[in-house]
Amino acid sequence: MFDRLRAFHQPTTTQAALRLFESERRAGGAGRFVAGGTDLVVEGDRSLRWLVDLTRLPLRYVKRRGGGWTIGATATMADLEHHAGLRRFADGILAAAAGTAGSPQIRNMGTIGGNLANASPACDLGPPLLALDAVVVIAGRRGAGRRTVPLERFFKGGHRTALNGGLLVEVRLPAPPTPAGGRAAWSFQKLGRLQSDIAVVNAAAGVALGRDGRCTWARIALGAVAPTPFRARRAEALLVGRALDAAAIEAAAGRAALETRPVSDVRSSAEYRREMSRVLVSRALIACVESLGRAG
Ligand SMILES: Cc1cc2nc3c(=O)[nH]c(=O)nc-3n(C[C@H](O)[C@H](O)[C@H](O)COP(=O)(O)OP(=O)(O)OC[C@H]3O[C@@H](n4cnc5c(N)ncnc54)[C@H](O)[C@@H]3O)c2cc1C
Fold it and tell me: What's the pTM value of the predicted model, to 2 decimals?
């Protein structure tokens, strides 16, 4: 598949990776960054002439940052799945989502940076990271410096991102909302044909309750049912200010399903995806309420 490559670079610094990418780009011929290769190899693009490997860069880390976390781009799905701190953070939604991606072999190779940069509509880290208000740090090409982009604005369309030839360096998770005297909870849900399959639908929810038991903050994000993972903002708005009872959950889940723009493909019909969006959002919100009940 890569029989036509003429160069495979293995830089050890971010600056060198960007410099090599830029000089190869100027020299002509198609090329890409590569991390775990689990998307790139499957793509099988035989027009590629050069690759810049990212796995020797010092970007494989998960660090505490304030009340949140910073995750380097080459941290693998397995790193996230098994990280003790991430398994506790926000009810472990990111670790749980990473743990559903493919097989152990895929999770040992596939990275958070690759999952986001590939921007598949069905990527499993998209919805939980949207629910966590994640921000990505991009090192721009041609010495453009670094910029931070909210994940919601990073996804531009199916397999299109705000990278513009830049390198995704890290993902930042802010401290979760902690209303005075209140509590918060999260849940990730995924539906695939088999456990190791790409999602037919995936969904993440996060809610915070104030002291009076009413919802003060809500996040509902869905994947595989639109060109990009997205936040169902109208559904979120239906929850804020209300008690999270069965009627509120039903209304929000129904609204979220209406916000989807699913397609029919080999995995599922659009109708099934829309109906399962409703079901998964409902399950996620019920799981949040149950978690809040246990904590209270
Ligand atoms: C059998 C199988 C099952 C899978 N199951 C799932 C699943 O259940 N859920 C799921 O979400 N995914 C799944 N995937 C997809 C894939 O494993 C993930 O998306 C993975 O996280 C990709 O990461 P990678 O490091 O392998 O990316 P790569 O293949 O190395 O790169 C993917 C793309 O991103 C670019 N890129 C990579 N890193 C960066 C960076 N830091 N900055 C800029 N550009 C970058 C590359 O140029 C390339 O275009 C599966 C794949 C396979 C083969």
Answer: 0.97
Question: For the chain, what is the largest distance between any 2 Cα atoms, rounded to a whole number of angstroms?
Answer: 64
Q: Which residues line ligand 1 (CB under 6 A)?
A: 32-40, 42, 54, 73, 77, 101-102, 106, 109-111, 113-115, 117-118, 123-124, 163, 167-168, 198
DSSP H helices in the chain: 14-27, 40-43, 77-82, 84-88, 93-98, 104-109, 112-118, 126-131, 151-154, 233-239, 246-258, 270-295
Residue nearest to atom 5 of ligand 1 (CA): 102
Each residue of 8-30: pLDDT tens digit? 999 999 999 999 999 999 998 89
Residues near 128 by Cβ (< 8 Å), separated by ≥ 6? 93, 94, 96, 97, 186, 188, 204, 221
Tokens of 286: 């019920």
Confidence band of 182 (pLDDT split at 50, 70, 90) = confident
Q: Closest ligand 1 atom to the C-alpha of 117?
A: 34
Residue indicated by tokens 């009940």: 293
SS3 186: strand
The closest alpha carbon to 258, from 282, 280, 274, 273, belongs to 274
The pair of structure tokens assigned to 67 is 């009340």
Token pair recorded at residue 127: 């919805």
Residue nearest to atom 33 of ligand 1 (CA): 118
- Does residue 203 sit in helix, strand or coil? strand
Return the DSSP state at 290: H
- Beta-bridge partners for 23: none
CA geometry: angle 288, 294, 296, nearest 5 deg: 100
Q: CB of 125 within 8 A of CB of 115?
A: yes
Cα 151–chain centre separation: 8
Cα separation, 296 vs 293, in Å, equals: 5
